[in-house]
């Protein structure tokens, strides 16, 4: 199960704090930038930072029903907070550009075999570049659809991590840099 914790310095209930909560809190205390939040999924060993202000992001955990793959383990979606609030106030509005991080079990196939077997899932349109994300090698490619997008796919252990950045077709969309910053902050510890 994904674990998402909001940083707080006080426990208003005066309840004991678990070891995992203490570890995450201590990691967040080290991050002295109040504009950033650290996300950590202990089960899949994924950790990354994302901006919370100004023009920060709201993180939503994905449900298994939101992904058609039988191998989907967990995931999150990050919306700009202003976009998320607008979307919540108008439920008939389409979803805005966002970042989607999906994690899949891959204990059976080699990395490139998994990519070839999941082209509909990965939206791979052929032109790939080799990248490193959190010391894991993989591929990245750009694509076009309703939004412009980039997808980075890496394998670490028995998991495939798919990072998707969706942007407005305007090339000046600041989300592009935010997505690059998120990828640079990824670790698998």
> What is the total tally of β strands?
10
What is the CATH superfamily?
Mog1/PsbP, alpha/beta/alpha sandwich
What name does the CATH topology carry?
A: Protein Transport Mog1p, Chain A
Range of helix content? 10-25%
The biggest beta sheet is recorded as: 7 strands, antiparallel
Layout: helices, strands, pairs:
Blueprint: H1 19-30, E1 36-41, E2 46-51, E3 57-61, E4 72-80, H2 81-89, E5 98-105, H3 111-117, H4 119-122, E6 129-133, E7 136-144, E8 148-156, E9 159-167, H5 175-185, E10 187-188
Antiparallel strand pairs: 1-2, 2-10, 3-4, 4-5, 5-9, 6-7, 7-8, 8-9
Please characterize this protein's 3D structure.
The protein has 189 residues and is α+β, with helices and mostly antiparallel strands. It has a single domain (35-188), classed as Protein Transport Mog1p, Chain A (3-Layer(aba) Sandwich), CATH 3.40.1000. The protein is 23% helix and 36% strand. It has five helices and ten strands, in the order αββββαβααββββαβ. The protein has a seven-stranded antiparallel β-sheet. Strands 1-2-10 form a three-stranded antiparallel β-sheet. Strand 1 and strand 2 (46-51) form a beta hairpin. The radius of gyration is 17 Å and the shape is globular. Residues 1-30 have low confidence and may be disordered.
């Amino acid at each position: 199960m994904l674990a998402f914790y909001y940083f707080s310095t006080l426990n208003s209930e005066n309840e004991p704090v678990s070891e995992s909560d203490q570890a995450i809190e201590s990691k967040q205390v080290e991050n002295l930038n109040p504009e950033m939040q650290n996300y950590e999924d202990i089960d899949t060993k994924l950790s990354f930072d994302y901006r919370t202000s100004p023009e920060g992001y709201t993180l939503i955990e994905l449900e298994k029903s939101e992904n058609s793959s039988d191998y989907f383990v967990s995931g999150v979606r990050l919306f700009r907070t202003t976009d998320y609030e607008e979307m919540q106030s108008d439920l008939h509005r389409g979803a805005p550009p966002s970042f989607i991080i999906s994690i899949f079990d891959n204990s059976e196939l080699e990395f490139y075999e998994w990519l070839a077997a999941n082209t509909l899932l990965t939206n791979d349109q052929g032109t790939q570049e080799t990248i490193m994300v959190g010391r894991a090698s993989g591929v990245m490619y750009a694509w076009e659809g309703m939004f412009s997008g980039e997808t980075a796919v890496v394998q670490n252990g028995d998991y495939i991590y798919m990072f998707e950045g969706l942007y407005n077709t305007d090339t000046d969309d600041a989300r592009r840099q935010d997505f690059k910053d998120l990828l640079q902050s990824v670790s698998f510890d």
